[in-house]
Write a structure and sequence with these properties.
Blueprint lengths: L13 H21 L5 H8 L9 H10 L9 H23 L3 E2 L2 E2 L1 H4 L2 H19 L4 H23 L7 H27 L4 H28 L2 H4 L5 H4 L5 H7 L7 H7 L8 H9 L2 H21 L6 H15 L3
Antiparallel strand pairs: 1-2
């Protein structure tokens, strides 16, 4: 089976790109066999999102981090599969919570079957990931448990919202770090640990990957406002229509300047379809966008600082190229 496409980074080393492609092919094979069941329906439901595609971004980060140790170490591919299974499981659950009808261009599991099937399928993927983890050692199991705790905590905090006395922006960033950054951080940590990299390399990659994850999500916030649907394939203003308070929106709502009064009014709740063009126009011209982009750049700069202390090998150049990409894609 052909490997899924490697994330489009300006890799400076062709050998590295080939190694990653080969590793992703192994990940894909084990990923599919790991969810097979004697029950045909369980297999079908479990493979639903696997077969819908995806870049296998987190698995790629595991393989890339393993370049700082022994990339062919026995636990690297299983570790990448655990990360991908965990990510896929959260997607099944997210689609139920968001009542999403589509995932990766195909009907979501909850739309194709129902919420109960989607939730149980996500649980099954978590269980299959745990079975693989059992062979990777107590330290890896502990890290996975801590990561899962952060994923759930982030979802809970997002669901209930900030406390009355809590800073809205700080709450939002903390949620992003838990919901998105934590699993991406563990991707780098698994790859480094399972390949036998040094403790310093493990620490640097863990911190850098978390910062990259937060920066990536902040980039999505900006793209929802600034993107051209013809170029990005995304419909601008989706978050605004759903009343999701992303970072630029939070900055506007925390402003008390008179010129932002109309925009604050529009962003107070889900933006009506008749008002979406006006909301996008005003938000695109608002300083909140540059302020949000500066926050993204600050997170990426944190990642670069840690990456700069890694051994100078092609994998470091690839990680730094990823940092550039996270900033550039945000516009």
């Amino acid at each position: 089976m052909a490997a899924p496409p490697v994330v489009d980074l300006p890799f400076v080393d062709e050998r590295l790109a080939q190694d990653l492609a080969s590793g992703l092919a192994e990940v894909e094979k084990l990923l599919r066999t790991s969810v097979e069941s004697e029950d045909a329906f369980v297999t079908e439901a479990s493979k639903h999102l696997i077969e819908a595609g995806g870049k296998r971004f987190r698995a790629m980060l595991v393989l890339l981090a393993a370049q700082f140790g022994s990339p062919d170490a026995a636990g690297v591919i299983p570790g990448a599969v655990v990360i991908e299974l965990t990510h896929l499981a959260t997607l099944y659950h997210d689609d139920v919570m968001d009542e999403a009808p589509v995932r990766r261009g195909s009907p979501s599991a909850n739309a194709r079957w129902d919420n109960t099937v989607a939730i149980l399928t996500g649980d099954y993927l978590f269980a299959q990931a745990s079975e693989i983890l059992a062979d990777l050692g107590a330290d890896i199991i502990r890290i996975q448990a801590q990561t899962f705790s952060r994923l759930v905590r982030g979802q809970i905090r997002e669901t209930i919202g900030p406390r009355p006395d809590e800073d809205l922006v700080a709450h939002y960033i903390d949620v992003l770090a838990d919901k998105t950054g934590s699993l991406i951080a563990t991707s780098g940590r698994f790859g480094a640990l399972l390949s036998g990299a040094s403790p310093e390399v493990v620490s640097r990659l863990t911190r850098a990957c978390e910062a990259i994850g937060v920066g990536w999500q902040l980039g999505d916030d900006l793209l929802d406002v600034a993107s051209d649907s013809a170029e990005s394939g995304k419909t601008p203003g989706t978050d605004l229509r759903e009343g999701i308070r992303t970072l630029p929106v939070l900055y506007v709502l925390s402003s008390d300047t008179p010129q932002d009064a109309r925009l604050r009014e529009l962003l107070a709740g889900p933006v009506a379809e008749d008002d979406i063009d006006e909301a996008l126009r005003l938000l695109r011209a608002n300083p909140a966008m540059e302020r949000a982009r500066a926050e993204l750049v600050a997170w990426v700069d944190r990642a670069r600082e840690d990456l700069s202390g890694l051994p100078d090998i092609p994998a470091r150049a690839a990680y730094l190229a990823l940092c550039d990409y996270v900033v550039e894609r945000s516009g």
